[in-house]
Amino acid sequence: MFFKRSQPDHPASSATTSVTAAAPVASASVETVKARSATPLPLAELRRSADPAILGFKTTAELEPISGLIGQDRALKAIQFGTNIKAHDFNLFVLGASATGKRTAVKQYLAKIATTAPTPADWVYVNNFENPNRPRALMLPPGRARPFAKAMISAIDELRTTLPAMFEGDDYQARRRSIDEGFRAGQEQAFEALNRRAQEQNIAVLRTPQGFALAPMHEGKVVKPEIYNTLPETMRKEVEARIEALQKDLELILEKVPKSDKERRSRTTELNADVATHVVKAALDDIIADFADAPAVLAFLEAAEQDLVRNAGLFLASSGEESDVVKQPADSARDMRFRRYMLNVMVGNGEAEHGAPIHEEINPTFGNIAGRIEHIAQMGAVVTDFLLIRPGALHSANGGYLLVDVRKLLMSPYAWEALKRLLKAREIRIEPPSEMAGLMSTQTLDPEPIPLNVKVVLFGDRELYYLLSQNDPDFAGLFKVQADFDDSIVRSAENDQAYARLIASIVTAHNLKPADASAVARLIDEGARLADDREKLSIEIGRIADIVREADYWAGEAKHEVIRREDVARAIDEQIQRSDRLRDRAQEMITRDIVLLDVAGAKVGQINGLSVLQLGSFSFGKPARITARVRLGSGRVTDIEREVELGGPLHSKGVMILWSYLASIFAQDKPLAMGATLVFEQSYGGVDGDSASSTELYALLSALSDVPIKQSLAVTGSVNQLGQVQAIGGANHKIEGFFDICHARGLTGEQGVLIPKSNMQHLMLRDDVLEAVKAGKFVIYAVETINEGIEILTGVTAGERGPDGRFPPGTINALVEDRLRYFAERAQAFGATSGEGTISRREGS
Amino acid sequence: MIAHVAAAGEQRGRVVLRLTQEPAHPMALEAAMRMAQAFQSEVESVFVEDLQLFEWAAFPFACEISLTGRRRIMITPERLALDLQHTAAALQRRVGDLARLFEIPFHSTVIRDEPVNAIARACAEHGPWNVVVLAEPLAAAGTVMLRELFAAVSGATGILVVGPNARHTTGPVIAEVDDIDHLEPILRTAEKLLGTTTEERLILLLAGHSESETLEMEGQARLILREPPVATIARVVVRDGAPIELAERLRREGSGFVLARFGGLLAPDHGDLHHLVQSLECPLLLMR
Question: 0.80 exceeded by the pTM?
Fold first, then answer.
């Protein structure tokens, strides 16, 4: 059965509070034991500010800019190891938060070592004259590919002039005519002989539309049939027999024509080859001499020479004989007829390029990584050839280093798979993505693979690294070196100096005004705030650089010669102001009592919790009311957030822990025969994390003890089963979030925040919070245990068990235990009445 | 006609292109078009259905041996007529296409007669100033046929022939003159033809049996030549084997058109023109 109880507001200031139980637990008022007054944290504990005076310089102009990174020794050693080890599977994964300078650091290091590394070979694709669908890859000494390509164009240009001249020359023409005439004369002689024989026999050889015919002749004319028919039959038969014999002779002559013609063509081809070989050899001689040290080139030139000789006719077509529609360009390199002799330079080092290449691929698509084969539309068909092979990043980086953003790589279809496949195969084999997908494709090429020797450096965040490690079996085998970039460094006098030099290098790099010592000190403070830890400094270089650049702008606006502290503060404030529309809206909802939140008075089972919202790079604290209700029950707590699936697993874990704490403290000699509900009031989104578990426990203790909690205080911190309050994240934002609400409603001096003691080292509070604390208008308490916290929140002693095992009367714990004993007794009584031994109905979890 | 028209500076005349069942040489067709272009005349293609073939086809044993020598086809006059009709249509279409390309007026007719008679009839029906172009390469016995043609076709002032090796109609125009009486008409015709070739060179080849003969012709030629002179004059004294010697010279020049008098030193009407024509890579215009 449930019981009702009134929950009047209690003045927080009252040291001793009268608690009236609505029914049967305590019908009479209970005197509570006033707690000792707690000591708020002194001002010095709330922020660790850098002292400009001890930085030792006036402005950053006096400092030497830092050349590398600070505090990334582990990552830099990993980079050094990963780039120097000569193993193909020791590629690097550089992980860390964005804007930590990891990409710059890698590039700087690589630039240093790449210059002394050997320059890799040049690569070209050339036509495979035996199998054009499989272009050949030729390796050349560095810097030789482009001269080779130019030399081939020059040779073809030369042949366009010399070959036609040679074939039009008297010598060739005479030899050609000699062949033609020889064969023609042979044929004609045979025909003439037949003709003569026929005429001798008065037979005419006639040309018909589709062949030849023989007819009786008289005086040079075909005999008319009516005259022929008047001849005696014996004579006619004789004539017809002669015709038949001559027809057979004619057939023999005609049958020999194709064979004879074939022989003529063969001799003409021999002649053409003889003439062309001489000219082609002369055109290629210089190239052969220049590339005598490259056997692959010589083999190609030999094949090209043979092909040029075979296809010398290509060079004889003059513009007048070419199609009017497709005019051939004068430039050999663009002439479709001569494409097969051109070179496709895949990797061509210039004269000025030395050392290993460093290639950063900013758009790592499949084609941009592995290279691609383009197609062109020709006469309605899509065709390709070796000149349409385009190099990818791996070609450019071969023999050096390839830098890729892993997120972009993973988002590009097939790119990641292609990269892994090529790294494993240790060769660049260009295949169209459609082949990887198993789809049909148009006519394409299968270029010879190019050996691959590259060190791949992937950049990504930790989440991606661990995801890949866990889910991709190839990943660990190929990326064996991780360079883990820290996002903060330990704060020390030495590192403060390094930080100042870092700021100096930002100033130099961006050509900004120098920053004075006060501005640097403020930036160091901000670095600690960004790290969310006063013992650390954030090394998110990008964010710090943004602040410095904006401060430079505001310094300019204010006509300052150097960047001052106030310029930095203005830059930070302006950054926040540009981003804090939602924070303003959230605070407005509270100040207008749309979202209910008390910052004064005291209430039973109600407490102010603190949460942090993150919007992009901007975070802010948002207070929230948490309430607890208790009743007779089966020993379970109902976490309403979880019931409606708004609570995450960590939040549920926190609730279970606090319930375990209650059970261990109060249910050693009796069942925990209570039911409780916990809720984040007016929370319409998800709740996760356990930072509110101590807060929820305080609310439960208040509800069980019926002792009100001061609403002027807000609480954060997680709790363990032993009642110890543990550190949480975002302590500064949480404190400042509650401070902003209190400030809006008017600071009373009673208002403040309870934080775990272990969070003291993280405190880097804003100036306005510090000023309020200094003026005694706001307090921060650091607590180690739940007992400490409940005493501050209620002003009542928590109480420890005495030798008799009982809590001192009037303490919070005693009141809680009394209430729980009452619940247990009622549960027992209820079971006896109803015939049930215990309450077994499950209420929540 | 060409010579007369050219000499008179008139822009009239007609090119009669003779087609037969024998394959037409592309250079002959192109030469016909260039001539018509030069003189702004029309082309009339006359396909001759040789009567002798019909007489042969009427024999019961008439059979055609295919060009490969591997097939015999029994022929009737009807079958022959159909074959000739198809051959004529194909040839006329080819000539028509070429005429359209050269933008030349074009007419076509089919005449069934003996070849020489057919051309004589065609030239007589449509008036004077004809030049006859023989589409098929000149055969071994071609000189006889040319003689017959010149004799029978009074309306023709020139006959254009090609050899089997003809391969271009571009290049210098070479006019061979061996008779002072024919100097002017041949020269004027050559000047007209000059505009149709890609080169603007005209070579006047004066051939004679003696130096004085050629010198006299040169003097006359220089009087006739317009200013500025477009022709290069060359003199050749020939004795035995004149046609061969001249032909070799013409070949070396890479001529686009050769003009000569039929019955002259280069193209004697009693000898065998076949060898001369075979050695030329361009058309030969034989003038009366």
Answer: no
